[in-house]
Amino acid sequence: MATWKKLAYLDEVATLSDVTPQAVGTTASAGTGIAASREDHVHVLGDGAVSTAAKLAADVVETAKIKDANVTAAKLATDSVETLKIKDLNVTTAKLAADAVDGTKIADDAVGSEHIKPLSAALEVNGQQLQDAVIHQAATPPTAIKGKPYYDTDDDHVYVCTSEA
């Protein structure tokens, strides 16, 4: 027999606190009602608890300590700049060479739905057709396929199949 896991909505689960952490030596709260504790417990360390020398690896200098124009393309080793070091919006279409990006350079799941036009026909996925544009809607579970979601119209909840047998 198939197993369907009911997914909870946001208003059905505990929310975490947004209270600012308190200094060492104060009392923290555990949250009340459906609000659970998150940041309001004590973890703040006082000044001098960690030395600057202990935090920095050998030969590491903060970007703020480097003078403008001291780092040039000629001084960078090949492949020394990682993707995570490039600020958002700094790579633009105008800065890319013609045909510089092809399918081999696009990571899995890198293209979001905002770049995909609406379908004009049913789309087949893993032997199943997507129904109602996003998720299958029915009063009873559809054919069980592990990982398949459906929206139960009787109780207004989404379920995911976690086991086919």
Structure overview:
By secondary structure, the protein is mainly β. 2% of the residues lie in helices and 16% in strands. It contains 1 helix and 8 strands, in the order E-E-E-H-E-E-E-E-E. The strands form 3 sheets. A 4-stranded mixed sheet has the order 1-8-7-6, with no helix packed on it. Strand 7 and strand 8 (157-163) form a beta hairpin.
Brief descriptors of the model:
single chain; 165 residues; mainly beta; four-stranded mixed sheet; two-stranded parallel sheet; flat
| Largest β-sheet summary | 4 strands, mixed
Q: In angstroms, what separates the terminal alpha carbons?
A: 5 Å
* Number of contiguous helices: 1
Large-scale geometry: flat
Average pLDDT across residues?
75
How do the helices and strands follow one another from N- to C-terminus? EEEHEEEEE
Helix content: under 10%
Unreliable parts: none
Radius of gyration: 26 Å
Strand content: 15-25%
| Total number of beta strands | 8
For the biggest β-sheet, the strand order reads: 1-8-7-6
Structural class: mainly beta
Helices and strands in order:
Layout: E1 3-6, E2 15-16, E3 35-36, H1 52-55, E4 124-125, E5 128-129, E6 136-138, E7 149-152, E8 157-163
Parallel strand pairs: 2-3, 6-7
Antiparallel strand pairs: 1-8, 4-5, 7-8
Offer a quick outline of the entry.
The protein has one helix spanning 52-55, and strands at 3-6, 15-16, 35-36, 124-125, 128-129, 136-138, 149-152, 157-163.
